[in-house]
Amino acid sequence: MIVLLPVYKPGDHLPDLVEELRDADPAKHVLIVDDGSGAAADDVLAAADDGPHVTVLRHPTNRGKGIAIKTGLTWVHENFPDHDAVTADADGQHSVADILRVAERVDSTGRLVLGVRRFDTDVPARSRFGNTLTRVLFRAATGRDVRDTQTGLRGYPAALIPWLRDVTGERFEYEMNTLLEAARAGHPVEEVTITTTYLAGNRSSHFGSLSDSVRIYRPLLLSLMRLR
């Protein structure tokens, strides 16, 4: 199993997360893909890379989360073609326990797995509203009810990684596109309930409210228009 952490301007939590992952399961490999953070991230990335079973890849410029994920999936496919991958946010939102639970579900089912948040707890208003809207639109477009369409904690079985590399999208829309394409292709999706922590009101998120929302809703709306 490869734990894939796409990062941009990572904070001090990253080395701690890597260490916790290694302590919990020394056999797991941690792959960090830095999406053009520049020299300011050198110290944090060096601290995270201080140990076995850790690889750091770096984009010279910011290309988007979708590209970072695909860079990581390509590396996994080329170096560990029989390994599943779990993507997680590296800003403290996802606990090691939940990352490992998602990894276990992928291993046991061979299916795409989503770590879904509970929205009846202390979730920022914009996250709760955004998920409600995308959930309604996604159900209308695909007939599937996915409880958390915007989760960054996802498990990808090895057999689907070549397919995932071909899904379109460069930034946050990539993760929505994977769900839309999975529905069209008939790939089943498993869900694992997780506990999500929002540090400092989720200020560490690099999600641009307007521009990234447009990128996410555009493929949903296009899918709905095809049904008309």
From TrEMBL:
Query: Out of the domains of life, which is the source?
Result: Bacteria
Entry-linked Gene3D superfamilies: Spore Coat Polysaccharide Biosynthesis Protein SpsA, Chain A
Matching entries from SUPFAM superfamilies are given as: Nucleotide-diphospho-sugar transferases (SSF53448)
Report the CDD domains cross-referenced here.
DPM_DPG-synthase_like (cd04179)
Give the residues annotated as coiled coil: none
- Per the database record, which ranges form the Glycosyltransferase 2-like domain? 3-130
Database matches in InterPro entries: Glyco_trans_2-like, Glycosyltransferase_2, Nucleotide-diphossugar_trans
What family does the database annotate? Belongs to the glycosyltransferase 2 family.
- Spell out the PANTHER family in the cross-references: RFBJ PROTEIN, UNDECAPRENYL-PHOSPHATE 4-DEOXY-4-FORMAMIDO-L-ARABINOSE TRANSFERASE-RELATED
State the name under which the record lists this protein. Answer: Glycosyltransferase 2-like domain-containing protein
Species in which this protein is naturally found = Virgisporangium ochraceum
Q: Lineage of the source organism?
A: Bacteria, Bacillati, Actinomycetota, Actinomycetes, Micromonosporales
